[in-house]
Specification:
Distance between the termini: 54 Å
Strand content: 15-25%
InterPro entries: Glyco_trans_2-like (IPR001173), Nucleotide-diphossugar_trans (IPR029044)
Domain Glycosyltransferase 2-like: 5-127
Keywords: Glycosyltransferase, Transferase
Helix content: 40-55%
Structural class: alpha/beta
Organism: Chryseobacterium taeanense
CATH topology of the largest domain: Spore Coat Polysaccharide Biosynthesis Protein SpsA, Chain A
Largest sheet: 7 strands, mixed
GO molecular function: hexosyltransferase activity
Length: 312
């Protein structure tokens, strides 16, 4: 049987937290639930303390200074404190479905598999949240990939290097990973990224580790969409969106160079990074640099980020 540590970063999630925790307690495979409280301004800490005192499988941690450090740092603290052989993640306003670890139990029988990922669904908790989510993501019922894949195909798919469109994202809520694989490659969340730490982590994880898709045609967890979801507040291709994407791809490019990834991968990551770099420039300098970049790397016009070039 799997022995899983579920890591839940907690920040201002008082109204959702108990449901989230209860959904993880449902599974015998879950050895422990690590609540990483990140200096909430509501009564989340009080609820965490109540939950931890009432069940030995629930453990409460805060940062060394009891300050607010963000979701990435909170997940990193959870990884350090986890004692299970496997790690799973859950956002405090989301919850697992009964089939969450159904595929994992079978797939992990193969010792070559380091991690399994699946699909998540959506539940609209407020009308404003629904409107913002659908304005950005349309009425997409699942966050998932388009076809089963494993190994290097997953990494190539996330970089849009596969012949078929793989999809650009799988959610942490549907990822289970061996702790030994995380430790082997010293993988952690980039704490400088206040958003998109998950995308950064998933891409790096899929390069070093042998991941395999599990249940991708139906949800294994549910994302709760409400008024305070940060990711839906950012309008696509807005200056804020471009800036945050730039920081993400800058992080990935630095990682690709530092780890001397094969040239095909470094180039694709560079093109994505450069696209968002150019999107933040203005005036004649911007258009001069666009022309110069196209002369050097005409393939940049084929990336899914080419739209950014022409936004002022």
């Amino acid at each position: 049987m799997l022995n899983i540590s579920v890591i839940i970063p907690v920040y201002n999630a008082a109204q959702f937290l108990e449901k989230s925790v209860q959904s993880a307690l449902h599974f015998d495979e879950v050895k422990e639930i690590l609540l990483i409280e990140d200096k909430s301004t509501d009564n989340s800490l009080e609820i965490c303390e109540k939950l931890a005192s009432g069940n030995s499988r629930i453990k409460l941690f805060q940062h060394h200074d009891k300050g607010n450090h963000g979701a990435g740092a909170s997940r990193n603290l959870g990884i350090e404190k986890a004692t299970g052989n496997f790690i799973a993640f859950l956002d405090a306003d989301d919850y697992y479905l009964p089939n969450r670890f159904e595929a994992d139990k079978e797939i992990f029988r193969d010792p070559a598999i380091d991690g399994v990922f699946g699909a998540i669904g959506v539940e609209y908790l407020t009308e404003k949240g629904r409107q913002e989510f659908q304005a950005k993501f349309k009425d997409i019922p699942l966050t998932t990939v388009n076809y089963p894949a494993e190994g290097e195909e997953v990494f190539r798919g996330l970089l849009s290097l596969t012949p078929k469109i793989f999809g650009t994202f799988f959610h942490l809520n549907a990822l289970t990973i061996k702790k030994s694989a995380i430790e082997k490659y010293n993988l952690r969340f980039n704490e400088n990224l206040r958003v998109h730490q998950d995308s950064d982590f998933n891409i790096k994880l899929s390069y070093f580790c042998h991941l395999k898709s599990g249940i991708i045609d139906k949800a294994v967890a549910i994302r709760g969409v409400h008024d305070n979801n940060r990711i839906t507040k950012i309008i696509q291709y807005s200056p804020e969106y471009n800036e945050r994407q730039f920081i993400l791809w800058q992080s990935l490019y630095h990682w690709a160079v530092t780890n001397n990834l094969p040239s095909e991968y470094r180039k694709r990551i560079y093109l994505s990074f450069k696209s968002f770099d150019l999107s933040q420039q203005k005036g004649l300098r911007k258009y001069f640099n666009i022309v110069w970049e196209v002369i050097k790397n005409y393939e940049i016009l084929r990336t899914r980020y080419r739209y950014n070039y022409y936004k002022s």
